[in-house]
Amino acid sequence: MVSTASALLYQAARHSAARIDRSARGRIVVSGADRASYLQGLLTNDIVAIKSGFGCYACYLTAQGRMIADLFVYELGDVMLLSMPLAVKDTVLAKLEQFVFTEDVQLGDVTETFAQMAIIGPGAAAALGASLDDVAIDGLAGLARLSGLIEHANLRARFAGEPAIVTRIADTGEPGFDVYVERPHAAAFASALAANGVVDLDADTAEAIRIEAGVPRFGIDMDEETIPLEAGIESRAISLTKGCYVGQEVIIRVLHRGHGRVARKLVGLVFEGELAPAPGADVRVEDREIGRVTSSALSPALGRPIALAYLHRDFLAVGTTVAVDGVRAIIAPLPFVGQ
Questions:
Q1: 262 phi and psi, to 5 degrees?
Q2: By three-state DSSP, how is residue 40 classified?
Q3: What are phi and psi of 67, to 5 degrees?
């Protein structure tokens, strides 16, 4: 059962505005005249097509088509900002540095320079606009600028007279914004958000919202053994019209020769009972093990436990009944709760 406190936080995130700590993400800046063409040959999405003020979601793959990381790429006008899981930031930076030869490209780790936090919910734009210096000064025009940002778009702003970056996000499960402020001003910015009605979301409630939206998270639902097609992120992360990138041959072979069929696929499960299964729990049909749970939560919206799980490709049909630790579950379409 969802506690009263968690239920109130959940309602704030869904109907007002809530803040999520994003300190578990790493940040790299890529500068130089060749930054877009350089990343074009390494990442899965169409980087050279990104104009100033916009961005995309992409993957960095091995030659075998398996994931090194998923990341967001934002063209800020003078540099590109990459945001990725903190656990893989050093690996990504080291690999990127290996491929800089004669290109006009410089790489910088700005993880400690900026604090990153998400403000989500239908009231996020108004609360964020009231907290940023220039947006608040510009009034309705500034608010319209924020509200009009499409997913992955970005803009420069200021807080306490210092630079800030705002990006439009949806990977949290509830659409909102990521804000990057200089680290010394992070606490003051969080206080400004609170003064404008933004509540702090606890990790469990944030996870429940993400899982309800069916958004896989690297390090939990995806790892270095995952092919993007297995996680179902290809429509968002992979360009089918760009030139070569690392791992492309494998992706194209599966899509064209294999008609997109992979050995396993990430699906949603809705459970009977009140307890969410533990990540790593086996999923079975009768005596056959067909997959495993990667993340789970008690869904406040559905009032039932839900989970993301990889299942064998022969057992992916919506409505199929499976069992996890003896508890009955049904394969459900993703997202569980629409974005």
A1: -120, 165
A2: helix
A3: -80, 130
DSSP-assigned beta bridge partners for residue 20? 118
Closest by alpha carbon to 274, among 310, 308, 306? 306
Tokens representing residue 238 in the block: 């992979």
Q: Which two tokens stand for residue 217?
A: 């998270």
User: Pairing relation of β-strands 106-109 and 25-31?
Assistant: antiparallel
Non-local (6+) Cβ contacts of 67 within 8 A are 59, 60, 61, 218, 222, 223, 224, 226, 227, 228
Strands 199-200 and 18-21: parallel
Q: Enumerate the β-bridge partners of residue 114.
A: 182
Question: How many residues are listed for the chain in this entry?
Answer: 339
User: Which residues share a beta bridge with 318?
Assistant: none
Answer whether the bond into residue 335 is a cis peptide, omega within 30°.
yes
Domains of the chain: 114-196 (3.30.1360.120)
Output the tens digit of pLDDT for each of the chain's 339 residues: 567 778 999 999 999 999 999 999 999 999 999 999 999 999 999 999 999 999 999 999 999 999 999 999 999 999 999 999 999 999 999 999 999 999 999 999 999 999 999 999 999 999 999 999 976 556 667 788 899 999 999 999 999 999 999 999 999 999 999 999 999 999 999 999 999 999 999 999 999 999 999 999 999 999 999 999 999 999 999 999 998 999 999 999 998 887 778 999 999 999 998 899 999 999 999 999 999 999 999 999 999 999 999 999 999 999 999 999 999 999 999 999 975
Among left, alpha and beta (phi > 0; psi -120 to 50; other), residue 260 is left
Q: State the pTM of this model.
A: 0.95
Query: Tokens at residue 28, please?
Result: 């790299």
- SS3 of residue 236 by DSSP: helix
Within a 13 Å sphere around the CA of 82, how many CA atoms are in the beta-carbon half? 28
